[in-house]
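Worked Example 4.2. Consider the chain below.
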Amino acid sequence: MNSQELKAFSQRVSDQLFGHLMPFWCGPAVDREQGGWMACLSNDLKPDRTQPKGLIVNSRILWAFSAVHRKRPDLLFKHMADRAFDFVMNRFWDAQFGGAFWRLDDAGRVTDDSKKIYGQAFYIYALAEYHQAFNAPPALARATELFESIERHAHDPQFGGYLEVRRRDWSEAAADARLSDKDMNEKKSMNNHLHVLEAYTNLYRVWKDPRLEQRLRELIGLFEKRILDPRTHHFNHFFDEQWRVRSDTYTFGHDIEGTWLLCEAAEVLGDPALLDHVRTVALPMAQTALREGVAPDGALCYEGKGGKIIDPGKECWPQAEAVIGFLNAFQLSRESKYLDASIRAYDFIENRLVDRVHGEWFWRINEDGRPDPKLPKVSEWKGPYHGSRMCLETLHRLHTMQS
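Applying the procedure from the previous section yields the following structure tokens:
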């Protein structure tokens, strides 16, 4: 790509972020009756107020407006970030035991008070971003308090890593550890550790605590030694407490997302030797995702097993991660196939996933090439995080490539 082509690509991504995605989250997605954001909107924006307001999507909304404001300071983005900050600080926080509740009902009443570590991680991730954007000591104080709680109650000192869930009072939870019906009920998961890594990376940007550094290094080591299958270059998904593998499938989106999140963690740690080593792990994973997971139309398929695609559906979030992950692989290798893959994934987003009638992106394109009508536009799992982050990361990387 020459400089003009890079600029044109940057403009497309900027238009997507500021002209399409963020207006949706400043407009139709806002809950002007009950506060915060709508719990669930159908593809044509019909609300379902029986659905829960989840910790994940509300933390991701806080992260997105904070991060976008850092890129382009704007009073509207600050207003929305403040609105999200107020909602997660006052509605989701457990004033008695600390930590964040998993789910609220439409009116903001707690319906699931469990402490799922995946959710606590996103809470930290968002608070650290808000602090970076607005220099907000209360956000940093709560993020570090939550770090202490996770380390005290969920870190496994014997085998390493983090348990999936604790009770409200942070005691051992004997009940279901799953995040959703798709998951296995096991003690440890790749997904949980990937987002603890991501959260701790963001927290380390603003809080250079030596214990946090130690945990980041531990997490990078766990991904290489426990979670990644070195023969296949895929992440295993579920494990028992001693890290024995309990699953036999992988998701291409998590694989490609992990390639750049691991590099980011090593880069934030400021350890050149570690970063060089992580890059030798990330590139074969990106190559495998490109070879095994990308469909002829450039989209990244959802799930694989034994070297074969077992779910060819094209969900929105893996396409966002493919844009970043393959662009990262190009920056590491300078091999044009990765830049081509990144652009093709973005083309698929623009051509197939963007809803030009009702806004935002469709959740999933099925095998028939049409959006899945059963999946909502907004839910406790469908928010602005993957899309806005893809745009921000891509703009940053393209700027670096032009300079």
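The domain at 3-402 is CATH 1.50.10.10 (Glycosyltransferase). The chain has a mean pLDDT of 96. Compare this with Example 4.1 before moving on.
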